């Protein structure tokens, strides 16, 4: 595919350079060295919690049922599983996630609950850090090393990170999947990136909007291999689950509809903001939320597909993530851990635009403070709808980066690519 006419340079895939491999190797060694500390910290966190009354127990129980022959979509088996492990908190009558997720997490079901929880928290934090570092390595330039500290500190102070770790949620896995898919697409490995990105469907309320926007971007770029990867991976997940349990999909949709009815208009999304503004009356919430969500999707889709300066894979996915968090029918603060990659992208874009170092280095910290301030507001008002401002701010930052002329971003040679000048 020829370079874009409006871009000052085209990035051509090639195997990682020796310097790039060295950076990846140092990152791997650093994470390996931190593993004992991560496991120790995760153990202290787990044993300080009532880990049977956690979201992770839901994932673990469904994973364990893959080995015991029980059906997580059977209310009787689901209740019996809670009783077997003395879990008094039963928020759902059956497993509220897609069956392919239980199949993917089945290895955790072989471990006792407490050890599985420790492994999961440790792995989630490693995957979050790796996702941020992958963004940094994709955008490497001589001064990029000065942003390692600010990005990691910003990550550790980000409220959604701690909520996600405490609840044992999926954010670490999903943000890593997005970052890895972006790496594949930046290297023009379209099929591999599509195969990975389809895993976001394991959390459909978030994954389907991202996949829809991703397919739109791929279609505008005529990268049909990426779309094929999404279709192949999604079909494989669905087929495997159907072969195991032909009834799971209808039961999953039923519990999803129940959960939507219980939470609609109260979560930190555009629907929640509309609900707060409308006094949580259903008709007003649907109308106002529909207008807001539709407008945001149209604006995002225009930037991804119809604008003259279409963003590259990393920017496109980074713009899609906060948009999906805002338009999903319901979601919670822990879902906003998916903003880690877009925040890293926004930080580096501000740095490339020529702002002083302190401005770019403190950008993540400023979003951390916003998230904490909105948490205090939630404690005062009794609902967390206004936390939707966090993904909205991140969406605006990434949109600003995506809409700037490529020449003003002053990109330098990344470690995984060679830049070749192109004609205007």
Label this structure with key terms.
two-stranded antiparallel sheet; 424 residues; disordered N terminus; mainly alpha
Descriptive notes:
This protein has helices spanning about 20-50, 55-70, 75-85, 100-105, 115-140, 150-155, 160-165, 170-185, 190-195, 205-220, 225-245, 250-265, 270-275, 280-305, 315-325, 340-350, 355-360, 365-380, 390-405; strands at about 10-15, 415-420. It is mostly helical and about 425 residues long. It has a two-stranded antiparallel sheet. It is globular. The two termini are about 15 Å apart.
Provide the fold topology.
Blueprint: E1 9-13, H1 18-48, H2 55-68, H3 75-84, H4 99-104, H5 113-138, H6 148-157, H7 159-167, H8 171-186, H9 190-197, H10 204-221, H11 224-244, H12 248-263, H13 270-277, H14 282-306, H15 313-327, H16 340-352, H17 357-361, H18 363-381, H19 389-403, E2 417-421
Antiparallel strand pairs: 1-2
Helix pairs in contact: 1-5, 5-6, 5-8, 5-16, 6-18, 8-9, 9-11, 10-11, 10-14, 10-15, 13-14, 14-15, 15-16, 15-19, 16-19, 18-19
Structural class: mainly alpha
Q: Count the beta strands.
A: 2
**How much is the average pLDDT?**
85
Q: Which shape, going by the Cα principal axes?
A: globular
Share of helix, binned: 55-70%
Estimated radius of gyration: 21 Å
N-to-C order of helices and strands: EHHHHHHHHHHHHHHHHHHHE
Which spans have pLDDT < 50 for at least 5 consecutive residues? 1-15, 406-424
Largest sheet: 2 strands, antiparallel
Domain module tally: 1
DSSP helical segment count: 19
